[in-house]
Every structure is written in C-alpha cells, then in structure tokens.
Amino acid sequence: MSLTTTDRDTGRPPWRDLPPPPRPKAARMGPADVVRVGGSGLRARPMRVFLSALGIAIGIAAMIGVVGISTSSTHDLNQRLAALGTNLLTVSPGESFDGGQAHLPTTSLAMIRDIPEVETVSALGKTSAKVYRNDHVPVAQSGGLRVTAARTDLLAAIGAELTDGTWLNAATSRYPAVVLGSHAAEQLGIHYAGPEVKVWLGDRWFTVVGLLAPNELLPDLDSNAMVGWAVAEEELGFDGYPTSVYTRVEESAVGDVQAKLGATANPEFPNEVDVSRPSDVLAAKEATDDTLSGLLLGLGGVSLLVGGVGVANTMVISVLERRSEIGLRRSLGATRGQIRTQFLAEALLLSALGGIGGVLLGIGVTIAYASYQGMSTVVPVWAMAGGIGATLVIGGLAGFYPALRAARLPPTEALATS
Amino acid sequence: MTASSHPVVDLAGVSKSYGDLTALRSADLVVHRGELLAVVGPSGSGKSTMLNIMGTLDRPTAGKVRIAGHDIDELRDRDLSALRAATIGFVFQQFHLARGVPALDSVADGLLYSGRGRAERRELAERALRRVGLGRRLYHEPHQLSGGEKQRVAIARAVLGDPPLLLADEPTGALDSRSGAVVMELLHELHEAGTTVVVITHDRDIAASLPREVRLKDGRIEYDSALGDAPAGELVAAEGGLR
C-alpha cells in the first residue's frame, strides 16, 4: 500500500477528513526590530544616505538659522532695552501753525516736572554756534556737529555715561567748558578731557571737561558739543528755548504721561510738540527685517521640499534595487504590511537623520552669527521640535509611495530578480 | 496505514497559467512528513511554478493546494505570510544573503517574522550555524565565505525554526561539485533528523540519488517514483525513504 494513493474504499485520501489546523496568525514585529530592519537598508549604503539626508539637513538648517538668528537678535535687543530703560520720553518742538519752526515755552520744563509720575526732567537747547578743532579750520568745515546748551542734570536724566572727565556742573556751566559726544570727539580728534584740551567754539576757546560714551538710546547726542546753559546764553547768543526735553517717567505710567506730555509742555499749541519714546524708535529700527526672514524661510521650505523629493527618489531606487531582498523577506514570512513598514521606517529614519543634522547645523549657524555679533544664542525649542516634526512628515510622505510599491510587489516576481 | 496527520504538501489538480502560457497542468502531488524528494525537469518544465505554489508564494489558477492541512484558498495574503513564517523554509540558488551582514544575523533573520525575541533568534541562529558546521564562521560576512559556506548559512536560516517543510530551489546550482556534495549531504542529514525536504533541480543525478523522484516535463508530472506507474524496484526504494 502506498501512502500517496487514495483510500481504496472511499476513493478519497483519508487525511482530507481530518479537521483543518487553526488559521495561522501573523506575528507582530517589536518596535526595536522595526527600527533595526529599517536601518539595515541605510547601513548598507552610507554615501547615498549621507547625500539624501544632506538635502533635508540644508532645508532644516536654513529654517532653524533664520528663526535662531531673529530670536537671538530680538532677545539681545530686549536685553539692551531693559538695560537702557524704556521709560524715557523726549519732547521736542514740531512745526508751528504757519509752517515755521515752533519752540517750546521756557516754562515747559517746570510744567512737565509738575506731572506726578515724572521722575526727572532735563533739557538741551540748540545754539547756532559751530565747533572746530582749532581756529585755523575754515568756517564751512563744521563737520555737521551741533553745539547745544545742556542742563546740569541732563546726564542723570538720560542715563548717559562719560568715558573721561566730568559732566558740567554749576560752576563749569558758567565758563567756557564743553562736553563732547563720542562722534563729536572723534570728529575733532579729541581722545581725552583735561584743562589743556581745547576746541574752537563760537569764536573762542572752550576747555573739554568731559567725553560722553556712545549713547544707544539717543544716538543724536553723539554728534553734540554740550556747553552750560548760562555760558550759551552769554557767549553764544542762545535764545534759552529748550529744543529737547528728556523725562524719565514711572514705568507703569509711560503711556499716560506720553499722551498728556504735549499739552503739558506747550498748553497753548499742543499740536506744535513732538513727543517720542526713544526705546520704541530703537526697537523699530532694530527689529528684524520680516521680509528678508520670510524670504529665507521660504528658501528653507523649498530646500526642504527638494530634500523630500531626494528622499523619495532614494527610496524608489532602494526599492528597485532590493527586489530580491523583498522576495526573500516575503519568503521568510513578512506580510505586505511588514514590508511597507520596513521601507516607511527607512524613509523616516533617513529624513530624521537629515532633520537632526539640520537642527545641529542651524544651531551652529546661529551660534556663529550670534558670537560674531556679540549676542547670546537663543534657538527656540519649538523651532527645533518643528524642524524634526517637519522632516518626519516629509519622510512619511516621501516614503509612502515607495513603501507601497515594495509591499505590492508579488513575492515570485521579487524573487525572480537577481 | 491510517492517516494520523495532514500531509505537508497536498496538490490536487493544480494548474497555473500566465496569460496563454500554461506553466503547470493539473498536477497531483502529495508529500508526507519526513520525505526527501526531488522535483526534476529541464528549464521551462514548470519546476519553479511548482516551487512557488508549494511555497505559497503564488496561488494556482485551478485546483486545490493544501500545505500542512491549510487550504490556501481560505487564507488571506497575511495568513499565507504567517504560514510561511511558521511552516516553510526556503533555500535559493543565489543564497540571498545581504552583503555586509554577519552570518549570525543573516541566520537570525530567518525567524524575524515569527514573533520571537531577538536574543532567542540569535541563540537559535548560533545553534543552527553549528549544526551546519559553521560554528567558527558566526561573524563572517558573505564576502568572507565560500559559495558552499554561503549556501550552508542560507540552509541554517531556512531550518532555524524547525519548519515542517524545507524547499530547496537548485541548492547546488551555483556551487562546484565538491561544495554541492557537502550541501546535499547536509540536506540528507536534515532529512534524517526529521525535516521534510523538497529539492527542485534540473540535475538528474541529484534527483536519482534521492529516495523519491518527481519528473516534470512541459508542465506535467511525467513520472513519480512513489506512484504505481514507477518501476517496482524504485517504488520499494521510495517507500524505504518514508517513515
């Protein structure tokens, strides 16, 4: 009797009546195995992986760099503003009703001082005098420097600092003594203050008693030569009208005071007064250029997109090249889903590699720029997380189609390729 | 003799056509547990189609296929994958070893889809490599191995989980005769240890050296040494190969 022949009585092999075995059940792969299998394809072709990841990395680095640099700049500006104080308000005469130059009443200082929230008030008054290195310089070459009369309490009111010498006091403000702004000092070739250092100012010699440090909040001061209020009136034909009134106000009341400062300074013609807040001007000037940032972000986005196409291309080639591997894995018992997962994991790993590289590169660019500018580096966590998140989305999209193709490949066809 | 278990392979009237081309015509073949047989025929005779159908890599156009008792008509693609993972080991002519991967990891991948943990897979892989005589080549990569050694690695990968069925497609096709002999000897040893082995080959000498021989020609089973149409002496020999 042969085992392979049918049962002689029934004409039917006896094992056909045995109960069928239970349906086989596909096992799940652990996450560690998914990552390992996804990574195996990358390990085999390091150069290609590096180049495809680089495309993603450049895109992410551009975006992180733009965000990092702009955040670092803003952070730096805020720190500087906090140091300079944002409670300084300036009042200056605007145009009069007939279009001429208006002037502030001489009483304006006293009236502003009467506002309860005002902490300090001081003023500068423009004169028509010119300042020169010495009496041989032609009159026309005044170098754009201004000579202004300054109150003795100005230094404290605006929070300016001296690099050398002293500020004007009750005594020196009556005598031909001058304090130079940093630009003015540079222009006149003055490097230190002292009794022997003199400049030619309004047809006589003035002694340089002090030099001001560059003033970030009030850059106009840098090109001023400041003399005492009394000596200006006596020697330089100064009319005694303040042209800039500086007030420090309680932080909490800056807005309120700013609103009524014009009317207080010149109750008769409140419209002829300009009130400004120098810290706002500085913030507006230094605010990062949104157009440029937008453009760079856009470029980063395009680069990211191109990087994604690169990853998709790499994955399509990878699937084509590894048909026999796919066949082998199917023969070992991989389901279509497991093949799909493998290639998707590979694409995700590839772009995550690019994403992490890009974030590091972006941080590096930000650090380089920030240290060059003398700022501290700030890269927001949301930007890094967003960068990595974006690469995962791109990796998923780029890997989806190749993974689907790999999974759909019939095992016999896959094995037939060698 | 009564049938106490399902045969490993049970093909009944199986045909497979690709468009107008019929690769296999109403094939009947039953392989019982513990057999060692050759499916032999020239190229284009339908051997590969037969292998693909026995290995559940492909479905027939007509006829019934049962593998270890499972009617594959009733199984989804996902179930067939699970069936292959648990029941069938494959050995290919081209070895299919990934370059740069040490033998131990290649072999351990044989159970990657079985649901077993990595430590267990590697432990079994080491045992399987020792079993095929490659205990000293655990960490060798394919380019450091000879053809015969590569095929032994592939065999270790196929038998790692002790599958009831081992399908070897031209296992000696890419080897010189000495390495081929070693590989055939290994298949004999596995058979003696209880594995059902089906060798697909075009080599008539190899086919003749195995206990059972199934000859294919133009998509038909021309001769099966286990059936009555075989010469009496050969049938006895075939039964001797069964257990």
UniProtKB/TrEMBL annotation, chain A:
Region (Disordered), start-end ranges: 1-31
Species: Streptomyces griseoviridis
Family named by the database record: Belongs to the ABC-4 integral membrane protein family.
Residues of the ABC3 transporter permease C-terminal domain: 300-411
Protein name per UniProt: ABC transporter permease
Chain intervals with Basic and acidic residues compositional bias: 1-15
Keyword match Nuclease: no
GO molecular-function term, one example from the UniProt record: transmembrane transporter activity
Segments crossing the lipid bilayer: 49-69, 295-320, 347-369, 381-401
Subcellular location: Cell membrane
GO cellular component, one term: plasma membrane
Key words of the record: Cell membrane, Membrane, Transmembrane, Transmembrane helix
Membrane topology field: Multi-pass membrane protein
UniProtKB/TrEMBL annotation, chain B:
Highest taxon in the source lineage: Bacteria
Keyword annotations: ATP-binding, Nucleotide-binding, Transport
Domain ABC transporter: 9-243
Classification via CDD domains: ABC_MJ0796_LolCDE_FtsE
InterPro entries the UniProt entry points to: AAA+_ATPase, ABC_transporter-like_ATP-bd, ABC_transporter-like_CS, ABC_transpr_LolD-like, MacB-like_ATP-bd, P-loop_NTPase
Annotated Pfam families: ABC_tran
Gene Ontology MF terms in the entry: ATP binding; ATP hydrolysis activity; transmembrane transporter activity
GO cellular component entries: membrane protein complex; plasma membrane
Cited PANTHER family: ABC TRANSPORTER ABCH.1, IMPORT ATP-BINDING PROTEIN
Name of the molecule in the record: Peptide ABC transporter ATP-binding protein
Organism whose genome encodes this protein: Streptomyces griseoviridis
Lineage start: Bacteria, Bacillati, Actinomycetota, Actinomycetes, Kitasatosporales
